[in-house]
Amino acid sequence: MELQFTDEERGFRAEVRDYLRTNIPDAIRAAVREERPLPREWMVEAQQILNRAGYAVPHWPVAWGGRDWSAVKRAILTEEIDRNAVPRPLAFNVALVGPVIAAFGSEEQKRRFLPAIANLDLWFCQGFSEPGAGSDLAALKTSAVREGDVYRVNGQKIWTTYAHKADWIFCLVRTDSSGRKQQGISFLLIDLATPGIEIRLIHTIDGYRHVNEVFFDNVAVPVDNLIGEEGRGWDYAKYLLGQERTSMGNVGFSRRRLEQVRVVASGTTGPCGRAIDSAAFRRRLTQAEIELKALEITQMRVVAADAKASHAPDPKTSILKIRGSELLQTAAELMLDALGPEALTGGFGMPDETDPHQGIDARSAPLSAYFSSRKFSIFGGSNEIQRNILAKAVLGLGARK
């Protein structure tokens, strides 16, 4: 079954594909294709190239750089970015904090931050999770006490992706402990160069440096950095987590991975011959390709429904998160099977403070990608939580009579 697109949508896809292949440097695309870590300057360069074409923040208000495109065109753009091995615009900037500032920030905050966020002149990371406040985010304890024209922030955030690369962090902090735990939470923007902030690396099994602990010790944050109203941070966080959910399927990314698997399986000869010559391997690969096509169709159905809706995003986007993460993991497993023993010859060392890319090269990248793929079913709302959403919102299970 083939999806049916209009002539305009097919033309838009060709336009995007040509721009990406012409303007994004080959070295950046090669690193993405091999799933090697990208230095900060390459990620900034790629986003600025996308931003010049209007591809970085098309879902934003037009006044702040958005494009009045349909949800289908935005989905096509994301798929082509992934399929053509181009770094996506930094999600923390364009999909999370940017829309919150556009919706709830003051005019001064919009002018100050939004152009810089879109162009990655400022790099934001996300300060939500804490020890003991991950899935139950409302249990957070990082406090912000107002003293005149500043808040004094104390506490700890954990699993903070790219904190070591970032300039700023957007944080949920507790400004009032007297009510329900969802109340009294505020949304602050914090400059990571402020005295009293310490960032510590968390080593992960994939060998990449992604995540960190962030500690706040009596950090002075201007009151002007409060987004919206004090105590309404929980509402803003829910809004943030509902942004651009239709890209959760990662269809383009999975397609690129499976295409690479087929190439490697057809060319790499191991002790038992080529993987593609194994009927069992071909069956698994073909099954993954069929499931990806089903996911693509489901994603476009959700996109089309979302484009017509005037209410909250369709809870069926949870299907995209579940199946998308599972297919990414399947593709990573198939790549290791296609490589055979060669997958273990690269090896990799743990990165250090001076060289965050130490040991991650083209040979070790498939093994690193396999380990890294385990997290896809956890972050962004674990797959267990997504199944609960579907059970309640779609099937009506657990609903009160």
Topology, number of strands: 9
Instruction: Report the CATH topology name of the largest domain.
Output: Butyryl-CoA Dehydrogenase, subunit A, domain 3
Number of helices: 12
The CATH class name of the largest domain reads Mainly Alpha
Would you identify the regions where 5 or more consecutive residues have pLDDT less than 50?
348-360
Shape: globular
Question: What share of residues are in beta strands?
Answer: 5-15%
How much is the radius of gyration in Å?
22 Å
Overall tally of domains: 3
Distance between the termini: 41 Å
User: Within the largest sheet, what's the order of strands?
Assistant: 2-3-7-6
Report the sheet with the most strands, covering strand number, pairing sense and barrel closure.
4 strands, antiparallel
CATH superfamily of the largest domain: Butyryl-CoA Dehydrogenase, subunit A, domain 3
Portion of residues within helices: 40-55%
Structure description:
The radius of gyration is 22 Å and the shape is globular. It has helices at residues 7-23, 26-33, 40-52, 71-83, 91-104, 107-118, 233-241, 251-267, 279-308, 317-339, 365-373, 383-393, and strands spanning 124-127, 143-147, 150-157, 168-174, 185-191, 197-201, 212-222, 269-270, 273-274. The protein is of the alpha+beta class and 401 residues long. The longest helix is centred in the C-terminal third of the chain and has 30 residues, at 279-308. It is built from twelve helices and nine strands. Residues 348-360 have low confidence and may be disordered. Strands 2-3-7-6 form a four-stranded antiparallel beta sheet, with no helix packed on it. A three-stranded mixed beta sheet has the order 1-4-5. The protein folds into three domains: 7-89, Orthogonal Bundle (Butyryl-Coa Dehydrogenase, subunit A, domain 1); 124-232, Butyryl-CoA Dehydrogenase, subunit A, domain 2, CATH 2.40.110.10; 244-393, Butyryl-CoA Dehydrogenase, subunit A, domain 3 (Up-down Bundle), CATH 1.20.140.10. The protein is 44% helix and 13% strand. Strand 8 and strand 9 (273-274) form a beta hairpin.
